[in-house]
Amino acid sequence: MSLEERNLPTQSYGYGGLPGRPQSQESLADILERVLDKGIVIAGDIQINLLDIELLTIKLRLLIASVDRAKEMGINWWESDASLQSLGPDSGDDQGRLQQENRELRERLERIERQLASGNDSEKQSDASRSSGD
Is 0.70 topped by the overall pTM? Predict the structure, then answer.
């Protein structure tokens, strides 16, 4: 005898579904889009105590949201983080500028080294002429 023949209620649970809740046909992409659009905050604190003396407290805060949503909330730390600047759209221009500056500094250093070397050579010649004239 099958379940339909016995008139017993049947329930199916989708991805972690709960009894009494309708099964959702949303895809993972739909759920992710909703989470990024609205944002989600996960917060937690970890405290380590020994004999009622607080040794360590770790406060964890995690915000998951789209870049646009984060900007709406006033969060934009990645725009001023120097370690992330090379990831921007103008990174090619910055790279070229840095290479040009590096080239110019090397040329300048070579000129200074040549001037110092020629200055040392002229001092040696004047020292040699003084010693031969004595």
Answer: no
Q: How many CB atoms lie within 10 A of CB 65?
A: 18
- pLDDT, tens digit (0-9, with 9 covering 90-100), for 54-78: 899 999 888 888 888 888 888 888 7
Determine the straight-line distance between the first and last CA of the chain, rounded to whole angstroms. Answer: 128
What pLDDT is stored for residue 105 in this prediction? 94
DSSP string, 53-69: EEEEEEEEEEEE--HHH
pLDDT, residue 62, reads 85
Angle at 37 between CA 31 and CA 16, to 5 degrees: 20
Residue indicated by tokens 């221009």: 93
Give the CA angle between residues 49, 53, 54 to the nearest 5°: 55
Supply angle C-alpha 58, 76, 71, rounded to 5. 115
* φ, ψ (nearest 5 deg) of residue 56: -155, 135
